[in-house]
Write a structure and sequence with these properties.
This protein is mostly helical. It is built from 14 helices and 2 strands. A two-stranded antiparallel ribbon has the order 1-2. Strand 1 and strand 2 form a beta hairpin. Helix 1 runs parallel beside helix 9. The chain is rod-shaped and about 100 Å long. It starts with a helix and ends with a helix.
Length: about 300
């Protein structure tokens, strides 16, 4: 009779423990399938996909190079062509147009695309505005239920774990000390043992549920699956030059790189003044040391 009661209690507690895990599996599986369906229906615009990959500036620079607005030399400096200087010629897409306007503000000085990407506030604001506009068109991705941030649920979980551990210890002690009599009690003992083993594996089962129902980053996988058409159309040399210009943030600053020649001349004059002062001081010190030596020598002839 004790073995039957023990098996019944262990089975009931195991069912109570695994019921939330099963509910969690069901909810997360539904959210995962819905997320994948929503992302599968998304067809991001090429520049929007480039923005999500943080490659929008590279794509815009590539389009300007292909369309003849921009020329980038081997050191990464960007120059406007005759077509790029023509105010009537402007790309249709807002991102290449914003980048072209930023380069025009530095003309005729060379400027790197990386300097514009990091320091041109007008270009950055237009880039952020384009991203906000395009992000608003994306479907809302449902949030995966995980229970994090719910203080009441966390407290209940801690209390439940403590009670289950206490029950497991008591049930294990009764199972070990009790000796089954007959085949029926032996079967109930096996049922209780399997129930206790299942309770030990409950936490591992919860982690498996989370791992198998995790959707990952389907939108990120979608936008990373293709390269922008303009960047893909560049040849190898053009691609290297565009990447070098985008990666250069300080060498070519356009009209922001102002050389103060007067200040340099003043610095040279100050260095010359300091040099003359040290030479004069050295000559004065040398003459000051020679005077005591000359005084005894002049007095000896007079004494003779």
């Amino acid at each position: 009779m004790r073995q039957f009661t023990l098996a019944l209690l262990v089975s009931a507690v195991t069912a109570v423990v695994y019921a939330p895990i099963g509910l969690l599996w069901w909810r997360r599986a539904r959210v995962r399938s819905r997320t994948l369906r929503l992302v599968a229906a998304v067809e991001p615009e090429p520049y929007h996909a480039a923005v999500l990959r943080n490659e929008a500036t590279e794509a815009a620079a590539a389009e300007l190079v292909l369309d003849g607005y921009l020329r980038i030399d081997g050191e990464g400096a960007a120059f406007l062509t005759e077509q790029g200087r023509d105010p009537a010629c402007t790309p249709a897409h807002p991102l290449p147009a914003a980048l072209l306007e930023a380069v025009r503000r530095h003309d005729p000085e060379p400027v790197s695309i990386g300097w514009i990407q990091w320091c041109e506030e007008d270009y950055l604001e237009r880039l952020r505005g384009y991203r906000r506009e395009r992000d608003a068109l994306l479907p809302g991705i449902p949030r995966m239920p995980d229970g994090e941030g719910n203080l009441l649920l966390a407290c209940c979980s801690c209390a439940g774990i403590a009670l289950v551990m206490l029950f497991w210890l008591l049930a294990g002690a009764l199972l070990v000390t009790g000796r089954p009599h007959g085949l029926r009690e032996g079967a109930w003992t096996v049922v209780a043992a399997f129930g206790l083993a299942a309770l030990l594996l409950a936490e591992k089962a919860r982690r498996v549920v989370r791992a198998r129902t995790e959707p990952g980053d389907p939108l990120g996988d979608l936008v990373r699956s293709a390269v922008h058409p303009a960047f893909a159309a560049l040849d190898e040399e053009q691609r290297v030059r565009v990447l070098r210009s985008v990666g250069d943030r300080c060498t070519w600053r356009g009209v922001d790189a102002v050389v103060h020649e007067e200040a340099d001349d003043e610095g040279d004059d100050q260095w010359l003044d300091d040099k003359v002062w040290w030479e004069d001081a050295y000559e004065y010190r040398a003459s000051d040391e020679e005077e005591p030596d000359a005084a005894p020598g002049s007095a000896s002839p007079s004494s003779g």
